[in-house]
Design brief:
Shape: globular
Oligomer: single chain
Strand order of the largest sheet: 1-2-6-10-9-8-7
Number of strands: 10
Number of domains: 1
Order of helices and strands: EHEEEEEHEEEEHH
Number of helices: 4
Radius of gyration: 17 Å
Length: 235
C-alpha cells in the first residue's frame, strides 16, 4: 500500500462526513440527497460527503440509450444525473456529494476534474495506479491481463450550484453484474475492481484514503481561467 499524503490538510469542519454501515435503497438515498441539496441552498444544512453501498440495481442517466440495457436483471432507476447506464451494488463504494459551488467559483468543469483527481489519489494509497483517459469518462487502470479497465465512475448533477450524485469505486463487487448493461456507454473496455487487482477489499481502508485526500480536493475548487490548462492543473 502506498503512503498517504505526508502533510494532509485539516478536514473542513463545515462538511459532514457520513458513512453508512448497511446498504441504502436507491430511492431513499435519492430523496435524502435532494432534500440535503435544497437545505444547503437555503442555508439550513451543511455540505456533506455521504459514503454508502446499494443493493444491486442499474441507474439510467439523462443520456441513457435503452439499447444499452442488455439484461434488466435488477431494478432500473432514473437517476436524474448526467451520463448513461451504471451499475451499483454490494462491494462498490458510492460517494454522494452535496457541495456548494457558489463560494467555490461556480465552475462545474473544475469540480469534475478535481473529483477525478481525488479518486485517483485515494486509489493510489491502496496501491492502484489509476488515471484519467482522454476522451473517456471514468477512472481507469490496467487489469491483471494488462487491459485498460474501468475501476471508477462519476456522474454529477448541479442544482442552484449545489452538487448531487458523485462517484462509484469498485472495491469488491460481483463484476458479472456489469454485463447487464453497457457501462456508461463504453463496450470496448472491461471493468475491474480493487479486489481483482489484489488490493485491500475492506471499505474502511478506501474510506480512510478518501478522507485523507478530501481536504486537498475541496481546497482546489475554484473558477477556471480563460484557458483549459488552469482547470487541469492540480495545484
Amino acid at each position: 500500500m502506498a503512503n498517504s499524503s505526508p502533510n494532509p490538510l485539516p478536514f473542513p469542519e463545515t462538511v459532514e462526513w457520513r458513512v453508512e454501515q448497511a446498504p441504502v435503497d436507491y430511492p431513499q438515498a435519492l430523496t435524502d440527497m435532494e432534500a440535503r441539496a435544497t437545505a444547503i441552498y437555503a442555508g439550513e444544512a451543511s455540505e456533506r460527503v455521504w459514503l454508502l453501498e446499494h443493493p444491486p440495481l442499474y441507474t439510467a442517466g439523462t443520456s441513457a440509450d435503452p439499447a444499452e440495457l442488455l439484461d434488466a436483471r435488477f431494478p432500473v432507476h432514473e437517476a436524474g444525473r448526467g451520463g448513461r447506464y451504471t451499475y451499483h451494488g454490494p462491494g462498490q463504494r458510492i460517494g454522494y456529494l452535496n457541495i456548494d459551488l457558489t463560494p467555490r467559483g461556480k465552475d462545474v468543469r473544475n469540480f469534475v476534474h478535481h473529483l477525478e483527481g481525488w479518486m485517483i489519489a485515494a486509489l493510489g494509497d491502496l496501491g492502484i495506479a489509476a488515471r484519467r483517459a482522454e476522451g473517456r469518462i471514468g477512472i481507469w487502470t490496467d487489469d491483471p491481463q494488462g487491459r485498460e479497465a474501468k475501476i471508477g465512475a462519476l456522474g454529477i448533477r448541479v442544482r442552484r450550484w449545489v452538487t448531487l450524485h458523485g462517484f462509484a469505486i469498485n472495491v469488491d463487487p460481483d463484476l458479472s453484474h456489469f454485463t447487464g448493461i453497457v457501462p456508461c456507454g463504453i463496450s470496448e473496455y472491461p471493468v475491474t475492481s480493487i479486489a481483482a487487482l489484489g488490493g485491500p477489499t475492506d471499505m474502511a481502508t478506501l474510506d480512510d484514503a478518501l478522507r485523507t485526500h478530501f481536504p486537498s480536493f475541496i481546497s482546489r475548487l475554484s473558477r477556471c481561467g480563460p484557458g483549459v490548462e488552469q482547470c487541469r492543473t492540480d495545484r
